[in-house]
Amino acid sequence: MSTPTPFRWLRRPGPHTPPGTTAVAVGATDAYAPSGLSYGADYNPDQWPREVWDEDVRLMREAGVTVVSLAIFSWARIQPTEHTWDFAWLDEIMDLLHANGITVDLATATASPPPWLTTKHPEILPQTRTGETLWPGARQQWRPTSPIFRSHALHLVERMAERYGDHPALVAWHVSNELGCHNVDDFSDDAAAAFRAWLRERYTTLDALNDAWGTAFWSQRYSAWEQILPPRLAASHPNPTQQLDFKRFSSDALRQYLRAEAAILRRMTPDVPVTTNFMVMGETKGMDYAAWADELDFVSNDHYVLPGPQALDELSFSANLTGGIARHKPWFLMEHSTSAVNWQPVNVAKKPGELARDSLTHVAHGADAVCYFQWRQSAAGAEKYHSGMLPHAGERSRLFRDVVALGGTLRDLAPVAGSEQKPARAAIVFDWDSWWTSELDSHPTDRLRYRQEALDWYSAFLALGVRADVVPTATDLAGYDVVVAPVLHVVPTDLRDRLTAFVEGGGHLVTTYFSGVVDQDDHAWLGGYPGALRDLLGIRVEEFAPLLDGESATVELAGEQLEGTLWTEPVDVVDPDVEVLGWYKTGEQAGRAAVTRRTVRSGDSAGSAAYVSTRFGRLGLVPVLARLLDDAGVRSELPAAVRGDVELAVRTDGTDDFWFLVNRTARPVEVPDVAGDVLAGRRLAPSGTAGTPGTPGTPGTPGDGVLLLEPRGVAVVRRPAEPTPPR
Ligand code: GLA
To answer: What domains does the chain contain, in order, with CATH numbers?
Structure first.
């Protein structure tokens, strides 16, 4: 049996900072400073008889589990009726975990209201845009804006804080669970009332709202606030700005709810950090997490692999964006899966090596905790076919052996804890307003997928072996050499000015079709597309020319013939400093510019603004990006032989850099010329004989011989830190 890695939480600064801990600088994530990587899972002991708990903690210790998230769905057990409370079982398991050196990220238990509450108050149930009620029987059956739900839930939060605020196992509060997963889009009367209040706050006067929403169109002008509704099922296309504002409001409503729980916890237990688990993954788009991060003491994320050709790219993209949301401080991987999930059409088991590779890819992008849903696979309920750390098969299983092995690897990686993502020279900008707005209805095409476009650019970076940070729009871009902002649809004046300053400061901006087209109210910038970015790009487009399914246009770029789909445009070059990098060869735009770049000289610096007017997809973007990066002087840090097969992600603590090399293939890959101490993985050859297979080394072997990456394997190498350019 192994001893769990000791896990130290730094308490929040302030009057209640306990003696012996260090007050740290402010920032959304600075409260968390562990002494090793954490390892664990959601733990649902209330699904099991008492005798199982002893086996749980024995096996947790064997696996090296250091932290569990407890009581997430336990409201009905803790408060079985409105006036009865049962904490005894929770007291017992908290004590048992503590006695075994396992810390607790304790849920406020508010995620799923008990049947007595929804029976007494069915008016807390959410409603869809078509007016259907989401009934109890699953989970998260509550309106984010319901005052009744809020008063019951906040009372529970108080009871939890009161009872467990001083418990020695408690290391963090876990507010609710995946806020908005099933209930972000609530169109109920409570939502309508709260939406009106939110709009009053935003616009102050009805005239301002009428202007912003363009209500002169289709006789929509409002003469009283009470007339305003959520964008419920309507006879035709609902007002687009109403839709956009409702998305903003719905995200904000949950954020306000998060803030309400957090306020109680901070008042009652000011030295315990507060988090909640985000869902930065796939098409989960209702919550503007870049804004939410400010509510937390450290960012947590849940991620599940989505099958398909970009599964691993998407995992890396999401982890990378989570780091961007956490402002590149360490974050907490609160949930992912050891193997299959239960909620996809076909739930594929992970192949050998994938369990560790997926987890370590998150660590590579800044996760200091590796946690799963869930510890013990359920025997009953909707998630009984969802994998856990301890499967139905029990401890005598490959899966549990892999879990134990990963626990050992995480202990070897303890020096990585607390280090930050090292800035790359390139970044991809990710913008919630553009995501929400570019995919609204009544547009030139309904085929556009914002996140997919961003992911395709990221895939191209991975294929070229060039690191790129994925960052929210508000991030200071000044330190980057290249910034790619795909489908940056919403460009208010201040964002246009920031991008212009970036380019005038010598930065290289790349943007695409359907960018710069509207302002913050979803009103078109006039005078020609790409609207707000027209002057910066030095081009003008009079009319969009989207393509039908099955249509494509050939573009010649750098001697290659590429296929553009989805979108084309008649691009007019209007600035003499614009160079045409790619030409349409077929279709309506044949003979016109498809990819352009304007050079912008300012003082000593020469920046540029490039435009890609069609969709090339993840493979077609590779030569496009290669050309743009090459001209900007941004190169891969990986040996040429392994680019595309291996992802490099780098963390740094200022003294050391930690290179994570992720084998993206199912075969062994040898990586030459990576100097440094091997913390995970192994070398093949001693220093000076790189490329010659030799005796396998062991973790911790210094030198610069060939690194062997096992199939789907990850190596981690510690090297003296290279200077970090200012971000
Ligand atoms: C989410 C939830 C968990 C569980 C998993 C299953 O992450 O937070 O409770 O339902 O999904 O993948």
So the answer is: 38-185+253-417 (3.20.20.80), 190-240 (no CATH), 426-632 (3.40.50.880), 641-720 (2.60.40.1180)
- HEC states along 586-608? CCCCCCCEEEEEEEEEECCEEEE
User: How far apart are the CA of 393 and the centre of ligand 1, in A?
Assistant: 21
Q: How far is the CA of 373 from the centre of ligand 1 (A)?
A: 6
Q: Which residues pair with 251 in a beta bridge?
A: none
Give the model's confidence band at 19: pLDDT under 50 very low, under 70 low, under 90 confident, else very high.
very low
DSSP for 560-593 reads EEEEEBSEE--EEE-STTEEEEEEE-SSTTTTSE
CB atoms closer than 10 angstroms to residue 323: 28
- Taking each continuous run of H as one helix and of E as one strand, the counts in the chain are 17, 30
The residue whose CA is least distant from atom 11 of ligand 1 is 373
Phi, psi of 438 (to 5 degrees): -65, -20
Q: Enumerate the H helices of 221-353 as residue ranges.
A: 240-268, 289-292, 311-325
Residue 685 is predicted with a pLDDT of: 59
Question: Which atom of ligand 1 lies at the shortest distance from residue 279's CA?
Answer: 7
- The C-alpha atoms of residue 168 and residue 159 are separated, in whole angstroms, by 17
Nearest atom (ligand 1) to Cα of 177: 8
Whole-number Å distance, alpha carbon 342 to ligand 1 midpoint, is: 10
Ligand 1 pocket: which of 275, 302, 350, 358 to mutate (most atoms within 8 A of CB): 302
What is the DSSP annotation of 608-657? EEEEE-SB-HHHHHHHHHHHHHHHHT---SS-GGGBTTEEEEEEE-SSEE
* C-alpha angle 361-366-368 in degrees, rounded to nearest 5: 95
8: Cα separation from own chain's centroid: 25
Q: How confident is the model at residue 545 (pLDDT cuts 50, 70, 90)?
A: very high
- Residue 335 bears catalytic tag: yes
Q: Give the dihedral of Cα atoms 219, 222, 223, 228; nearest 10 deg.
A: 140
Per-residue pLDDT reduced to its tens digit, 514-524 = 999 999 999 99
For residue 178, indicate whether it is catalytic: yes
373 lines ligand 1 (CB under 6 A): yes
Q: Which of 473, 467, 476 is nearest to 722 (CA)?
A: 467
In whole angstroms, what is the distance from residue 58 CA to residue 102 CA?
Answer: 11
Centre of ligand 1 to C-alpha 303, Å, is 9
Before 256, cis peptide (omega within 30)? no
Would you state the pLDDT for residue 34? Answer: 54
Tokens found for residue 482: 């290249």
Catalytic entry in 295, 335, 354, 569: 335
**Mean predicted confidence (pLDDT) in 594-599:** 98
Q: Can you give the pLDDT at residue 711?
A: 98
Query: Ligand 1 centre and the CA of 356: distance in Å?
Result: 19
Q: Given a cut of 60, is residue 695 above it in pLDDT?
A: no
Atom of ligand 1 nearest to the CA of 302: 7
- Of the ranges 25-39, 139-153, 445-459, which one carries the lowest mean pLDDT score? 25-39
pTM value is: 0.94
Q: What is the pLDDT of residue 604?
A: 85
Q: Is 302 in the pocket of ligand 1 (CB under 6 A)?
A: yes
CB 174 near ligand 1, within 6 Å? no
What average pLDDT score do residues 360-388 get? 98
